[in-house]
Amino acid sequence: MIDGPHARWRSLPPEGALRDGPGKAGSRAPLNVDGSDRAPAAATSRASVSAVGQLEQTRRAFLGAALAAPAILGGCARPDDWRTRVDGRWVGDNAALGHRVRDMAANPPAGARERRCDVLVVGSGIAGLSAARTLHDAGITDFAVLELEAEAGGNSRGHAMRGLPCPLGAHYLPLPGPAAPDIQAWLVEIGLAKQTAAGLKWDERHLCHSPQERLFFEGRWQDGLLPNVARTSSTQAQYQRFAKLIADTGRLGFALPTARAPWTPAHEQLDRLTAAQWLLSNGISDPLLLAYLDYCCRDDYGAGSATVSAWALVHYFASRHGFSAPGDDTNDRDPVLTWPDGNAPLAQALRRPYADRVFTGRAAFRIDEGLDDVTAWAFAGAEVERWTAKHVIVATPLFIAAHVLRAPPPALVAAAKQQRRAPWMVANLRLDDLPLDRVGAPLSWDNVIHGSPSLGYVDAQHQSLGRVVGPRLITAYWAFPDTQRKRLLEMSWQDATQLVLDDLRAVHPDLSERLQQVDIVRHGHAMSIPAPGLRSSVALAAVPGSAARVSFAHADLSAYSVFEEAFTHGTNAGRRVARALGHGSV
Fold first, then answer.
1. Out of 1, 119, 145, 278, which could bridge 310 as a Cys pair, Cβ 3.0 to 4.6 Å?
2. Residue 183 sits in which domain range?
3. What pTM value is reported for the model?
4. 249 and 328 share one domain
């Protein structure tokens, strides 16, 4: 890791602590924007969470109350009246066009403009772009990529606010291990790593700088995301118990991408239980550890430990870094690649060699597979295009693929019905200056509040190599229960912003005063939730080979969504099509 020089945030003392100020000896630091000194709800103490079930209920109750708040908030001005001076909007996903696809699939209009190519790729997320790259590398040049949105990249798209780059979704990539040779080779190809006798040497400019992460716990910031406790405490003993449990269970075999790992009856047994059930059956009951594990599940899978499978929880650790208790010699942080605009540079690098073949603003709404070719209809602004291709790669979420195919394979229909999807919100906040901060560990790349229903926020300027002065930008992440999807889609940007401000007020009480601009994206169906039974689904495993002239490429095929899975499924689909077209050397 390398350190990047950053301006220090103005520090407040721990909650409830006294400090001396100019002319106000012994005055109390303000805890809330409204000036009250009550303990903020987001700063949860150890006693407030007793078990996974209670944790999930508390989180849902908070979200329910917060999402119900717009009816009240709409008529109430905050003391600083930020709503009257802050520019804000929803950006990103075009839900209206997506719903138009849903409504028009059954009846394609007449008079469409005719287009032809050898291979048509529908969707330009990481899977679609990876599939196109594989076709390009195989010598197939007559292909086209259709993208519903105005920009390619899917959940890896980037954004900018008055010149300050920021992410709209995924914001890092862990360094790929030996189970991901295709990704390693591509990262070498684009210059992020060099092959040496000692292994891969990474470009340190793009490795996450220190400090990497911090946690707000018991009134102050601490280094790392696991609560620091006494070495002799029962919590530390539970940390060590869980570390051994992951090490033992990990011997079954786990890898990223998951297709590189074995699948055995023992894996299937893990996939039958929720993570919470598995933890309880193995004697993991400490509230602090359970809260951390619930956060890990929400952060990677969009749902908590009471919802995702035990396989998903074990995979989270065993496929990467394992688990180490604080204070252990092996408790090193994983190096990750990251940029101010998240994974957007990776999406741009994938697209660059064939950018002229990526057509944005194209919403494919029906695909018909014939004996000799495949026909796809797509909106292109006010027009409709009718594409004819020898082969189509559908690189969309499975529920969309099942909808747009006129005759979807039974395996696809069954797998799509099995998948629950997590709604996400990503809020980018442009500030005029650094807000007040609690004492403890300094501003980090990843900043998380213990017990919060949010996933914390990322400092979008953390990777800057020079001293950062002037306006600042932070990116807050939220994963909502799938039962709250409709409410998220109906929420105003003002009420979504208030949700973020209320959550962060415990650590930055003057954040609303610093706020200048808000751009928020909502992903109504952001990712597949790896609930029990999904990873071991027979239908899901059958989808890739379920059609003759249509291939499928999406992270959904792995039961959850990360860059590595999407890239791998895109590569595999591109190779299948290349072989079918007589280009078998890829």
1. 278
2. 173-207
3. 0.87
4. yes
